[in-house]
Amino acid sequence: MPLVDNFTKLLIRGLLAGLIAGILAGGVAFVLGEPHVNAAIAIEEANSAAGETAGHSHGDEEAPLVSRDGQRAGLFLATSLAGLALGAIFAVVANYARRITTMSGPLLAMAIALGGWLAIEAVPFFKYPANPPAVGDPDTINQRTWLWLATVILGLLAVTAAAAAAKAVSAHEFLSVRVAAPVAAFLVIVAIGYLSLPTINEVGDDFPATLLWEFRLSSLATQATLWLALGLAFAFLTERATKDADVAKKFALR
């Protein structure tokens, strides 16, 4: 059944689904990501101590504004707020998307979650994967931030092109064409974007490769949890609302 609720109900549903997804993503980040962050910080501190021993004083460096204990305590708050923000955006997209598709509410929710993950996480990740502390030149942080934003825009364009291609061939008799067209549109846009954007590799030769990729995979797992939980929670709440509405109608007809 297509989404029929008004925007206020969709927004509340999106916020609730986002909060659930944010808490779950925070749990994944704490369990999988924090050990790798701690290991990377230990390497950074060891390198700093080695520099001081060699005569390069860092005595005037400022202490971090937030301690590691504070960062751990704020992790769930940060992911919950991020989930709420994404949930609100999710509801806005769902409210618009339901006008141009005949998908059922739950299926539409999962499609939006997949598109969001591809655009905002997967496309940027495979061009500029996340780096742990001790990796990256502070002087290039602005450049890297703008390039990351460029890949997000690239991902949004690719997903939009894929959705347009899927709609254009939705009536085609061959399933293979209906599948291949959006996939091809997505890959072509992403490939052109990847080739146009510069490559950045600031990982030192002495940084442990295993730690680097474990950190990156934990980051990818956290974001995947966020989007998957958001889609599933929104779909579940949609199905529950539909069932409650059907029950209410049955009682009203008695």
What is this structure, in a nutshell?
With 254 residues, this protein is mostly helical.
What features would you highlight for this structure?
6 helices; mainly alpha; 77% helix; 254 residues
Summarize the structure in words.
With 254 residues, the chain is an all-alpha fold. 77% of the residues lie in helices and 0% in strands. The protein has helices spanning 7-53, 68-97, 105-127, 141-168, 175-196, 209-253. The longest helix has 47 residues, at 7-53. 27% of the residues are buried. The mean pLDDT is 86.
The share of residues in helices is: over 70%
DSSP summary, beta strand count: 0
Largest sheet: none
Computed over alpha carbons, the radius of gyration is 22 Å
**Tally of DSSP helical segments:** 6
Mean pLDDT: 86
Structural class: mainly alpha
Strand content range: under 5%
**Which word captures the global form?**
flat
Tell me the distance between the termini.
23 Å
N-to-C SSE string, H for helix and E for strand: HHHHHH
The low-pLDDT segments are none
Question: How are the elements arranged and paired?
Answer:
Blueprint: H1 7-53, H2 68-97, H3 105-127, H4 141-168, H5 175-196, H6 209-253
